[in-house]
Design a protein that fits this description.
Strand order of the largest sheet: 1-10-7-6-5-4-3-2
Oligomer: single chain
Shape: globular
CATH class of the largest domain: Alpha Beta
Strand content: 5-15%
CATH architecture of the largest domain: Alpha-Beta Barrel
Structural class: alpha/beta
């Protein structure tokens, strides 16, 4: 049977760890494991063979780091030769193993070790290109499937999945690495990953690395609750430690198998291992699973969209889609588009978020501007300052596709309709990129005057979507409402259409609610009442103005009266703040957006930094210097407190890495203004202390190191960034020559942690008075203690806190 039939017919087994096994066979610190495909093929083949004899169905090729960042096009160790040899090694092992079960070869594709823009310096399309090259070669040399694994950023995962879909028809699996809080490094939770991955067409989704099986069980349960494809679980063998310069793990095969019982009960169908696991671990898992039956894979009829951190699910509680980023009827917004005033647009988005919008509609269509370029820019800039999902709203197909391509998450798509031409243009985009598509009940004959006519168009759209492989859960119908001033029965027809779509099609619905009052005075009064009537008739989502008092009153009271608002908590919070909201209503100057500020006690500059508004932070800093504020007072009074607010949120897991980095970027913009001010006036900014940052020998993954550098820079430290793949000798000589007393070391892979230990040994042997702080995905406090580090930092902010203590 083929691999898709196999994973849907009971348990399927991946192999386990690779790097730790190769270390036992002599892999040196910093040596690239992928080169052993050519240098030591017999060892790789023996490892594969041993796994096959343990009951494995799917072999992962020894290509985790095989990409064009590490390997070139020429020579014996070219990327093509590495991948060709890796697949050949797996095939050779399969040919020698007992033919007692189905065997498959998965091209193993790991992360690139870089953050994508705007958080890092790698362009999204560059990442796609790198992944394409690797995956094309894997398909060329006979892989049965592609495994994209150990992803800690959903945006990078999207780049890899898009690359796979554009160069091969092979099935694609995705596994991500979650931390102890159940989030990816950049903040996504399991259900959001499921939504994005399934939208991009994966055949299986799951989790690997970072955690042991016991810690993974709750995450597997969440994945299984939302996934309509098989769920994968490849845990580590517990926590790592070092023995005689090698990395070992603390969970043996028997205990691992017992813990995997929890994984089976949580709903995983595809079982295997990651760091520290061996053929013995997999064999024990296979034997344990023989006592169980795999839970069947079922279709989850869950309608959702996501940002890069979280999902919004369309269920009983109506969803609020903020309408303010749209030029229709908004002269100030039109002028902002003409003036390329991105700050105005961002402020509109942030204000709507603070007014409790769940999703932001984004429409930048004006005849006199380049809509395609503007749409891409606005989507990227908005996602840099808000974690709300976006609704891409355009009739320009090119703008739609390019926005969907760069969007980080699963977007709403506004819109398709019942016209064949439009469906044939939009549905291929929905199928390729994923998304929840708004379907307008209009076709070649116009808008039906009856509810039944609109229901018929909705049915037609569902049927056409199915032809493209798009499920009903990814369609949300807009039955349209026209102004009652022109069509007195319009409201009744729309309300009946809402009921029919809900009752006859079990469909989700959306409306541009305020259209109902066009041409009438005091429109908010009509809008609020109609909104209540629409919700009562099954409306799932409203495109509306969250600044409207009448609309928000209708929303909160409806939710409370329908037992959607637990203990009336949201209503009580809303009602108790009504007087203060009126009193604090901002006075907006002509041409300005209201300043997004959910804490009136904070200074505008502090707010700009916490929100990640770089241009605004720079402008305010310049303004403050111009009015006579001292630079040191700006730094200590506004910039550092703002970074502390975001940093504490990060430590409490209420703020995630993207917000942390964008706030740091905004602070950097402010610091640049201050630096220019110092230079202009012949002054010099004092640094708190000098720190070395380096990713250790053999490791090209510098995400963690770069994050720490950005934060230390903003807190006023002089960071000597030695880069990645750094020899211990270079770190030692730099510390000695520049008299540096604090060294930060980073490593992502188990195979490179010994290089970290060696670096620490050489620093100690040189007799240098230095402290060493270490961090990385595979490290723990115990591990850090065993390799002689002075401090283990579990995240970037902990490194900053340690530096603050050290240099105090």
């Amino acid at each position: 049977m083929n691999i898709l039939e196999k994973i849907n017919s009971g348990f399927t087994y991946f192999d386990g760890g690779c790097g730790t096994i190769l270390q036992e066979q002599g892999l040196k610190p910093g040596e690239l494991p992928e080169t052993w495909n050519i240098i030591h093929p017999e060892i790789i083949q023996k490892m594969h063979y041993d796994y096959l004899c343990s009951g494995v169905n799917i072999l992962k090729t020894n290509t985790f780091g095989a990409n064009s960042l590490k390997f070139g096009d020429e020579g014996e160790l070219s990327l093509e030769n590495i991948i060709s040899a890796a697949i050949n090694n797996a095939r050779t092992a399969i040919s020698q193993a007992p033919a007692d079960t189905e065997r498959y070869v998965a091209l193993d594709v790991g992360p690139l070790g870089k953050l994508l823009k705007p958080l890092g310096d790698m362009e999204f399309e560059h990442a796609v290109t790198i992944f394409k090259k690797t995956i094309e070669l894997g398909a060329k040399y006979g892989a049965d499937l592609v495994l994209v694994e150990t992803m800690n950023d959903i945006y990078e995962a999207k780049a890899a999945l898009l690359a796979a879909g554009e160069v091969t028809d092979l099935p694609v699996f995705l596994t991500c690495a979650y931390d102890e809080s159940g989030k990816l490094l950049t903040g996504a939770d399991p259900k959001s990953v499921v939504a994005v991955a399934e939208g991009l067409g994966v055949s299986a989704v799951g989790i690997n690395c970072s955690l042991g099986p016991k810690q993974m069980a709750p995450l597997v349960e969440e994945l299984s609750a939302y996934a309509s494809v098989p769920v994968i679980c490849n845990p580590n063998a517990g926590l790592p430690r070092t023995e005689n310069g090698k990395t070992v793990f603390d969970v043996g095969p028997e205990d691992f198998a017992k813990a995997m019982k929890l994984i089976i009960e949580a709903g995983a169908q595809i079982l295997g291992g990651c760091c520290g696991t061996t053929p013995a671990h997999i064999k024990a898992t296979v034997l344990e699973s023989a006592n169980h039956t795999a839970k069947p894979v079922t279709e989850k009829n869950i309608t959702m969209v996501t940002s890069y951190t979280h999902s919004v699910i369309f269920d009983r509680k109506p969803i609020l889609i903020g309408e303010r980023i749209n030029p229709t009827g908004k002269s100030k917004f039109k002028q902002a588009l003409r003036d390329h005033n991105i700050d105005y647009i961002l402020q509109e988005g942030l204000t709507q978020q603070e007014k409790k919008a769940d999703i932001l509609d984004v429409n930048v269509g004006l005849p006199e501007i380049d809509e395609v370029a503007m749409m891409i820019e606005v989507v990227c800039e908005l996602q840099a300052v808000t974690d709300l999902p976006l609704q891409i709203d355009t009739t320009n197909v090119e703008a739609m596709e390019k926005a969907l391509r760069v969007y980080n998450g699963k977007a709403m798509i506004n819109s398709v309709n019942g016209k064949e031409e439009v469906m044939n243009a939009i549905f291929p985009l929905v199928k390729k990129y994923g998304g929840l598509c708004v379907a307008l009940t209009i076709d070649e004959d116009g808008i039906p005057t009856t509810a039944e006519g609109r229901l018929a168009i909705a049915k037609k759209i569902y049927e056409k979507a199915a032809e493209y492989g798009i499920k009903p859960k990814d369609i949300i119908v807009d039955p349209l409402c026209m102004s009652i001033s022109a069509e007195p029965e319009s409201a009744n027809v729309t309300l009946e259409a809402l009921r029919l779509i809900r009752d006859k099609l079990n469909g989700k619905t959306s409306l541009g609610v305020s259209n109902i009052s066009f041409g009438l005075p005091s429109r908010d009064l009509v809008n609020g009442t109609f909104f209540t009537m629409a919700m009562q008739n099954g409306l799932s989502a409203a495109i509306m103005n969250p600044n409207s008092a009448e609309m928000m009153k209708a929303y909160y009271t409806f939710c409370a009266l329908n037992a959607i608002d637990a203990n009336c908590g949201d209503y009580i919070d809303y009602a108790s703040n009504l007087p203060s909201m009126v009193a604090a209503a901002p006075t907006v100057k002509p041409g300005e957006a209201p300043v997004a500020n959910d804490n009136s006690n904070l200074d505008a500059l502090t707010v700009a930094i916490t929100k990640g508004l770089k241009d605004r932070a720079a402008a305010l800093t310049s303004e403050y210097l111009g009015r006579g504020d001292q630079a040191i007072d700006i730094i200590d009074g506004y910039l550092i407190p703002a970074l502390d607010i975001v940093g504490k949120g990060f430590e409490k897991k209420t703020v995630f890495l993207p917000q942390l980095l964008m706030s740091a970027e905004a602070a950097s913009g402010a610091f640049d203004v201050i630096k220019s001010y110092f230079e202009k006036n012949g002054a010099k900014q004092e640094k708190k202390g000098k720190i070395i940052m380096a990713t250790v020998k053999g490791d090209i993954h510098d995400i963690g190191k770069n994050i720490v550098k950005v934060l230390l820079d903003n807190y006023g430290y002089d960071v000597v960034d030695l880069g990645k793949d750094v020899d211990p000798e270079i770190i030692v000589s730099t510390a000695k020559e520049q008299n540096i007393r604090l060294v930060g070391l980073s490593a992502l892979m188990t195979t490179t942690v010994p290089a970290m230990e060696e670096t620490i040994k050489q620093l100690r042997a040189a007799g240098l008075d230095v402290k060493v702080v270490v961090g990385g995905a595979v490290l723990t406090q115990e591990y850090a203690d065993m390799i002689g580090a002075d401090k283990y930092a579990k995240d970037a902010m902990e490194t900053v806190r340690y530096a603050e203590e050290f240099f105090a």
